[in-house]
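User: Before I run my own analysis I want an independent prediction to cross-check against. Here's the chain; please return only the C-alpha cells and, at the end, one sentence I can use as a sanity check.
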Amino acid sequence: ILFSLPVYQMIFFTVQSVSFRLKTDRARVLLGLLMLSMTLVLVGNIVYYFKYYETFTVLYLFFMPLILTILPFYSIYAEILLEGIGSINIRRLIVLLLPSVIILVLNLITWLPLTSADKIVFLSNGFRCPEGGNPGLRAAEQVFWLGNVALLGGQLALAVIRSSSTLVRARKVADLEPARLPYLKTNWMVTV
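Assistant: C-alpha cells:
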C-alpha cells in the first residue's frame, strides 16, 4: 500500500489536470505532464525496488530522461502561472529539456546493444559494471553517472537560479497585482 498509494494519487491528479478545461487552461496541461513524469518515475522506482529487473530493463531507457524532465516542467509551469502562456520561450524550453534528450540518445546507443543478461547484471549490481564486465556495460555505467552527476547537478544549479528569479518576479506580481496571486505570502520572500 505504501508504494501504490502515491502512484494512484499521481495518476488521479494527472488525469484530472489534463482532462478538465483542456482548451482554456494550458497551465493545467503542463501540470499534467509534470505529474505524468513524476508518476512514471515512481513506477520505475517501485519496479526497481522490488527487483523486477526484466521489466526495469525496458523502463531504464526512459528512467533518467524522465527524472530530467521534472525540473524543466515545473519551472515552465511556474513561469506560466506568473506571466501567462505567451511568456514561454521555445528556445529556453529546448535548452531546459536538452539534458533529457541527450541522456535518452546516449541510453539508446549504450543500452539497446546489451544482452538481457548483461542488463540484469548491471541493474542487480546497483547500476555498476562488475569487475571484468564488457565495454558495453562500462559505457552504460558512464552514461548513468553522466546523467546523475553532471546533468542532474547542472539542472539543480539551474533550478536554484530560476527559482530565485521566479520568486523575485512573483513578489513583484503580488505587490503590483494582489488579486492575481491572492494566496501568495510575500513576507518570507524578503531574503530572495
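Sanity check: The chain has six helices and no strands.
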